[in-house]
Structure formats: structure tokens, C-alpha cells
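Suppose a colleague, Dr. K., hands you the sequence of a protein chain of 356 amino acids and asks what its three-dimensional shape might be. Before reaching for any lab equipment, you can write down a predicted structure in C-alpha cell form. Begin with the sequence itself:
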Amino acid sequence: MKINFLRENIIYFFDIINFLPKKQNGEVYFSVQKSKIYFYNKNIKIEYKILKTNNIENDIIVNLKYDSLAKIIKTINTKYISLTLNKKNIFFKKKGLKLLLLSKKIKKIINIKKSHNLLLLDNKEIINVLKTVIIVYKINNPSNGIYFNIKKKNIDVISCDNFRFLYNKIKLLNNKYKKEFYIKDIYIKLLIKILDKKKNTKLYINKKSITFCLNKNIKFEIIFYKDKNFNFKPILNIKTNILVQIDKNILFIALKRAKLLCNNKNKIVCLKIKKKYVKISSNNLEKEIFVEKVKNSLIPYRNKKLYFNVDYLLDFISLVKNNVIMYYNKKKKIVLFKASENKNCKYILMPIETNY
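The predicted structure, expressed as C-alpha cells, is then:
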């Protein structure tokens, strides 16, 4: 079979393959339009400028699975991919190997939206904030969304489930736009992976989406959704009394030991808060097994005995650099955790009621 190559374009393909989430919902489309390539589904669009291009007469679209594309990349096993287009086919080729994808004419023009609502964000700060909120998400909501509230001086970022609530914020220098929305957690994880810590990112706020301009060649648009029933203000404004301030490393090691003593079904640890120390015990087979006494550098407003899921504690403590500060609200029966180096970050956890 003789193949007539009408046009050829060289693409740095690994740049764009890393931006695709491994788990995809529904169909994934690959589209070539003039000097740009698009990967998109119902929730995201990724635009990539082709490094070397001739004029492409007909726009092409192909529907494919992410797994199929990954196999193509793995099979070719090269940094650059030679992509050949003609009216009916797309060919991925290298020396001694040709792979073919059937294509069809595009029905509508795909483009990345960019409004005039522009924010300039520090990538390092974005990554640090997103890494904190991603440990929690709304398990009672199938869309698993992270909440964003863009204000004049900062962006509130919140995640929650039935047992815990985490708040953090991204500082803004200049902003006159306000917007509230949710983004699915799968794309938050993707942003953490692809953002470059050493650079800044231009963020455009659109009516139904946000667009990240990652560099000169790549744009990343995420469709967001809204939830009018979510009101976080009563949670953040709860008054609490301080209980504990503990060195992060000492507490982390003690909780790791306590976790080893828990049986498979039971991951409960007990924190007995006293005047000068916190006694940590592991609850196993309805018995408390003493683990360690940890020095408390603060005088608590009262002695307290609290039970927690040890994994929920470790999730937050692993993010802290220096000291963990614990607060308590008697009426609501909730515990607020903060990191001494970042008091903007608030982690609210429901203690477990037990008969131990």
C-alpha cells in the first residue's frame, strides 16, 4: 500500500501527553487546526502550538482513548514525533515504523477562551496551596470538587467531606474580579503536576471556564461548575480555644507508631491533652495501648481526651514544616488544626465518638 504524505508537522509530543489525566471520563478528542493541536473532552481543552508546520488545508478531528494514545507514544519511543496529515488519515511515524489513525472532518472550530479578566499568579504559591486542599475532597459529591472564591486580595480555596474541612488562600497583588466556582479534583492534581515552580502563570477568568497560559506554546482550559448550596463562612468563623502546640516531627513519628498498633479495621488514636504533655495511645481490640508522651509547649484551656482517625491526622501533619497548633470548640465538638508557619491554612476535623 502506497501512502502519499501531503503535509508533515514535527511535534514535541511528550509536552502535551503529560497534561492529560490518566483517568478520563467519556471520549477524548485529538484535533489539528492550522498550526495548533488540541486535546479535549467535556471538561478540559489543551492547546499546543506545532513547532514546525506547513499550511494545513483541512482541519482534522479524531476520537480516541487515552490508553490508545499512550500506547502510540510508548511504541514510537522517541522525543519528537513526525505527524503526517492528509484528507482521511493521520500518521505517526519514525524510521521503520508507521502508525495510522482514521480521521474525520471537524464539525466545529475548537479554541481556547481568553477573557480580559487576567490574573498573574505565582506558581510556587499555587502548588503549595493546592497540595494542602487536595488531601480532602467532597466524598458525598460525585463530582469531587475543590471550591475557589476569587476576591480582591486573595483566592479562597476549600475542600471538604463528611468528616473534615480544609481552607487555604492564594494571595493576589491586584485584582478587581470576583468569581466563585468548583473544579474537579482530577484536574487539580493535574495542575500540581504540570505547573513550573520557577515561573508565573497567566490565569484568564471566563464565564464558564478558566484558562491557564502555561508558556508560549501551551494553554490549558478547565470547565468549572457551581454549587449554590455550599456556605463555608459559618465554619470558618467558629470561635475556638487553644489546646496544643507540638513539634511536627515528634508528633508525626508518634502517630506513625500508633498506626502500626491499630488493627486493620480500627484506625483510631487517642490524644489525652494535659498541662505539659499530650499522651498518644492506639486503640486496638477495645484496649488503649500507650505509645508516647509528647511535650505540649502551651497551657491548654482545659484537659481533654479526643479520638481521631489516625490517617486524617497524618494527612495534614505531613504538610506542616514546624509546629502543629490545635484548637477546640466545645459546642460544635470540632477541632481546628493550623501550621505555625502558615496560619492561613485551616484544617477542621470531627473527633470520633467512642465507648473506649
